DNA sequence: GATGAATGAGCTTTCATTCAT
DNA sequence: AATGAATGAAAGCTCATTCAT
């Protein structure tokens, strides 16, 4: 096994372990055990634990960066949007292990690394936001707060991919793409603009109290049941 | 200071420390220092570090559970939806510290606890999904995959709240509520059904290749810049 | 490059590295890097790290042994003494790297090796002591404790060479030789036996208390200033 | 056992272990084993291994600094010199363990600490040198290179104390003081200035070759015997 | 109840040494 | 002979948890 292969093997092992246990619970011992090398070997290929993690995340970043196209408003916008959705989904679905690291386990690292993660998030968001603003000028995007739209979009996308990474759902890729696209295009709440308003009558946009309940009724509340946590040790 | 107060003081301190440092970087020493009690005292009120964390999270859950109403399809659906959005936003915005823990730092805990978190997520999602299905029967929800709709919705909501918890954005609460509601109601992609179809012509929903690019063009790619990670020590 | 050359190259590299970093900080990696051979090659020529060190030290020993002459009391003693001083100085000044190892870095080795170093020191000292005793019989050495005289002499010599090895001082060799010789011949405290006693009056050799101060005065004390130690890592 | 006692116990244990094994070979495990506490306890009292060592050395420094008096040339110089010798000897003989650390094991520490040690050495030396220069003006010190005199003196003193620390010699304190004082006062080489020159005749200060031997004779060489070093492991 | 000193398992990282090529 | 990748025993240090006072 040559150096590059060994390095790959270690990266693969690290990816698996990180995604299963999260950064802190992943021990170098776990990684080398999975890669079937001695502990010292790990440090022949990476200067420390953090750097493997960083390398994995950065690899995912650059694959994402390589997949996303800046939307050209003079061409077919819808197709481009769909392409981007599809490309992002493809990259992340292809690497559920890393995706789940990125989306949920990335905490507690050193501040500089966390900063890097955030910077990436903001970059992606800014890009999306600018595309939406451009789209508004062209009349293909609804008026409204483009920043919030960007946030919602990213959130929706992340959640789908996160579920997938958790292996709770293994949805056909194209179904995700289509559904997300539809969702972004028309939402799902069908409040017939005319009929709706008419039907609801004058009470209109009655603001429900932010906390507390609507008075005079005993609405059914949702109470999450309690699970039990197991004992092990330490931290 | 009586028992209950002391307990509250510890919980408050723990919440602050957890949200500032994440679960692993938060040391019991930090918590007791902030609460101004001795280390041993901590263990008089909680069996271990994990359990404080669990208690905090469960508290947030139950506040959420208490705020969400099961949608009654015979009454004003839109108002109820908006109420729910508003209620969830209210609970989570009121406790950004815990929210950020929940959304990003919750990794690396023992499997049983992670399971509990997941169970809660699924419960919430199932509830939403059922409401959406009911809504479809009543014609107030677009046809489509209710599960994906639920996922998208939760993701959009999470992301907005996450940004808030990160203090990147401090948006007026009602603006979030309204924007999210609008977003769910009509999306933002305006592809005029008639014009759009006409414009796109017969090729219809041409599937762009999932990976790889459209041929014959050199589209602008997005390349996230690289940050540097700092050295500190160890893990 | 033949075997002997390679061996020499390794010894030279080791000497440099040991003298720059001390035994423990000197890594086998440093040595082979400087010698431009592979790590495994090192172990082809030496059984282990310690043995290179031992060989270097032993080489210095034997050069010293070869330089020192047993003083023949029937010949010109002073010249012989001076010769010996000169010879020792020559050997050690020619190899400041090794000298500094020997004088300051030689700690923390395995007990057997330390024993060997001590044995050498004692041998040299015994030799000197015997010469001094002989000299006393011949009337060319002051009466007094020859063992202490030997110790003082060795110490004075070591210190001068040590300073040189530290590169704090680069003194002309002959000046060292002459000064040391003068020092050994007459010391430097000039307490004119007659005048001195007269001047000091009857109190004579008042013994100052070994610890504590002479009463009734507040003599100026010497207080070394404090430096700060830097943080690096580990050991 | 209260905090101060425990701290002392750890310092004592560290002193013993350091002086027996040198800094690098002394393991924190050794220290805590000797002090009969758990490893963690060590770190309750000292931030790291280096700092105990530093504290020990600094303690010795300050005891030395406290013992040495700046020589007042208007008073009885000889007595003051003797006092200083006596004081230094007292401090160092009282703590042979630390003395041996200071004199031989102090290598391989982090550069900043080594610098501190050197600074102390230079301070002491400078003090002595200045006193000697002053003495020369007053006619109580022989003309000559005061810096070399200072170096010789320190070396002689160190060596005596070092031997003592090694437990090779347990000499009565006052004998050391007297012998050193005598040594400094008149050396030991008795070359009767007048007779000597006459006796030696015209050959005077014939310079023996710096290396190589006087020709025409086969002088007896000193060859240190070889010891054997034992095998253990590693470094 | 409250305290905080003591504990020790466990972690990351280093590096002398080995050995297949 | 030469190489350099692989090894794994140790080391320093951390911190959740315990327990005598």
Commentary on this structure:
The structure is a homotetramer of 235-residue chains. Chain A has two domains: 1-46, Orthogonal Bundle (Arc Repressor Mutant, subunit A), CATH 1.10.10.60; 49-190, Tetracycline Repressor, domain 2. Helices cover 66% and strands 0% of the residues of chain A. Chain A is built from ten helices and no strands. Chain A has helices spanning 3-25, 28-35, 39-45, 49-67, 77-94, 96-105, 111-138, 146-165, 173-186, 193-200. In chain A, helix 1 (3-25) runs antiparallel to helix 2 and helix 1 packs parallel to helix 6 (96-105). The longest helix of chain A has 28 residues, at 111-138. The first copy, chain A, starts with a helix and ends in a 35-residue tail after the last helix. Residues 192-218 and 225-234 of chain A have low confidence and may be disordered. Chains A and B meet through helix 1, helix 4, helix 5, helix 7 and helix 8 of A and helix 1, helix 4, helix 5, helix 7 and helix 8 of B. Chains A, B, C, D: GO terms for molecular function: DNA-binding transcription factor activity; transcription cis-regulatory region binding. Chains A, B, C, D: It holds the Pfam family TetR_C_24.
Secondary-structure topology with pairs:
Four copies of one chain form a homotetramer.
Chain A: H1 3-25, H2 28-35, H3 39-45, H4 49-67, H5 77-94, H6 96-105, H7 111-138, H8 146-165, H9 173-186, H10 193-200
Helix pairs in contact in A: 1-2, 1-4, 1-6, 4-5, 5-8, 5-9, 6-8, 7-8
Chain A binds a DNA duplex (21 and 21 nucleotides) through residues 3, 6, 27-29, 37-44, 48-49, 233-235.
